[in-house]
Design goal:
With about 525 residues, the chain is an alpha/beta fold. It has 16 helices and 28 strands. The strands form 6 sheets. The protein has a 9-stranded mixed beta sheet, sandwiched between helices. It has a 6-stranded mixed beta sheet with strand order 12-13-14-17-15-16.
Length: about 525
């Protein structure tokens, strides 16, 4: 079998140009929305390349959880960014709340922890340690962009640039150069067409200024659409469709260059999304459920407005996949609270940390809850209880009122949220188009991309995506349903097992009726 290591050895012996990676991300893009009518260029690339039918996001299926997974090669139980926003009980002041959208919060949390924000070395650090470069352009929030390369400021020749806040680009030398040609900020609009075009313009102006030779070892173009418009306007709104179409048109510029020049120079092109989206079908107020039961709860919104947490019995962070940190976190008290939550019709799933003595059990340390170890989100920063609003693919998702009914959202474990897009092509991959059924995740992709440029990802349990590199790989996998039943309560997690790894396909509440669409649920 012709393995990747043999390929790299032959390249070095024959003095072939080394592999480089060009990663184009489409934030929040569902595989089902890549159509020839709206996104013909990406659809053609997908169908002519290696594409994964079971490419799966991490839980919670939130951006600020999945970007660290993509750019560290670790799941949340290892990288430690366990939610878009989470409570830090040991910290003081603003540091009590991690806010992934805020670059100051990201860097403050990184500085405040001896292990850093990530519990593992991220891709940028690994590349820098090996004398390689990572350059990132992203039109998400400044915090989201920084999460893709936290320590870019100390990596010479690297780049971390948020298109909407170029004044926060790192390192400083790169920021100064960019600000000579561009305004510090580009306003976010829906759809966010101008920012996507600016990003691709910058790719050609800066990254290819001297041709393919000037391209970094790994270059990332992360497009904020269709996620921006899906949240604000709805998944099928005309302007969201225009956002997808305009983003595809910008991708066509990259694809045309790659076909003409990049591919023959061993630039491997990868397209992907970080998570999917579901439709908001109704509302649930987790805080009201707990307060009506007599619990003194402070929410993340209240903390951001200046509320203290000293007298609170619990702190609630999040509005769909939410975390609850409880002052009295004894099993007895958490069991009482979990029963209150699972009795509410708008609550879908409740998780707790795994039982230290039974880490492989379906139930967590709190009776009547699923173990976070089942979905690989168990970490010392994780909440005492994790709550997910009820959801299914046909009806939608129940969450707080932060998004209008009919708009898109994600964070939970329905298949539409968990399934993401991945397609790859280039000289390092087996010739011809392939539809891979083997399950794969962000950590597998990170490990594979580094391997393609000859770097091992330290201490990673992820697998390399060999099915795209070598012909004849067995892609059969097993599917197992892990069910927790207690009285009338029934919650289930569906896992795929492949190549010694477990992947989460979906999870759902199996008992009770889904609340009527659009009706508030208390």
């Amino acid at each position: 079998m012709y393995c990747l290591k043999e390929q790299l050895l032959n390249m070095n012996q024959n003095k072939v140009k080394p592999n480089k990676i060009l990663l184009v991300g489409f934030d929040g893009l569902r595989p089902c929305d890549i159509t020839y009518e709206v996104m013909p260029n990406l659809a053609r690339f997908r169908d002519a390349s290696h594409c994964w039918e079971n490419y799966l996001a991490c839980f919670p299926t939130e951006t600020y959880v999945n970007h660290p997974a993509i750019f560290s090669g670790a799941r949340p139980n290892r990288h430690g960014v366990i939610a878009n926003s989470f409570f830090c009980p040991a910290k003081t002041g603003k540091a009590k709340l991690f806010c992934g959208w805020d670059v100051e919060s990201v860097m403050a949390q990184d500085a405040a922890r001896s292990e850093g924000l990530y519990g593992v070395a991220d891709m940028g650090e690994v590349l820098a340690q090996n004398g390689r470069k990572l350059r990132i352009y992203c039109s998400n929030s400044a915090g989201s962009t920084r999460l893709q390369h936290v320590h870019a400021a100390r990596c010479e020749g690297h780049l971390n640039a948020c298109i909407h806040m170029l004044e926060a680009a790192e390192p400083a030398s790169e920021r100064e150069r960019i600000l000579k040609d561009h305004a510090g900020r580009i306003p976010l609009v829906f759809p966010d067409v101008d920012a996507q075009q600016t990003m691709i313009d910058m790719f050609f102006d800066y990254e290819l200024r001297d041709g393919v030779e000037s391209l970094a070892d790994v270059t990332v173009l992360w497009l904020g659409e269709p996620d921006h418009s899906s949240h604000e306007l709805g998944l099928k709104a005309a302007e969201t469709e225009r956002g997808r179409s305009e983003t595809d048109r910008q991708f066509a510029r990259v694809l045309q260059w790659w076909k003409a020049e990049g591919r023959r120079s061993n630039v491997q092109l990868v397209t992907m999304s970080d998570h999917g989206h579901g439709v908001v079908a109704g509302y649930v107020d987790f805080a009201a459920i707990l307060r009506n039961a007599g619990l003194n709860v402070v929410t993340d919104t209240e903390i951001l407005k200046g509320a203290g947490t000293e007298d609170a019995e619990a702190v609630l962070v999040g509005d769909y996949a939410a975390g609850l940190w409880v002052k009295d976190n004894s099993v007895e008290n958490l069991t009482r609270i979990a029963r209150i939550l699972t009795a509410a019709p708008g609550v879908g799933l409740v998780f707790s940390q795994p039982d230290p003595e039974h880490r492989d059990a379906v139930a967590g340390r709190v009776p009547g809850t699923l173990s976070e170890a089942l979905v690989f989100s168990d970490h010392k920063r994780s909440p005492d209880l994790r709550i997910v609003g009820r959801g299914d693919n046909l009806t939608g998702r129940i969450m707080s009122g932060s998004y209008t009914v009919g708009c898109g959202n994600h964070g939970g474990l329905t298949p539409q949220e968990v399934h993401a897009h991945l397609a790859a092509a280039g000289t390092a991959f087996a010739e011809g188009a392939r539809r891979h059924k083997a399950p794969a995740g962000h950590d597998d992709l990170a490990k594979t991309m580094l391997s393609l440029i000859g770097i091992a990802l330290p201490a990673s349990p992820a697998r390399e995506l060999e099915e795209a590199i070598n012909d004849g790989i067995d892609e059969d996998y097993g599917v197992f349903t892990l069910r927790l039943s207690q009285g009338t309560l029934s919650m289930a997690v569906e896992q795929a097992h492949y190549a010694g790894r477990r992947y989460v396909l979906c999870a759902q509440r199996e008992d009770g009726a889904f609340p009527a669409a659009g009706e508030p649920v208390r």
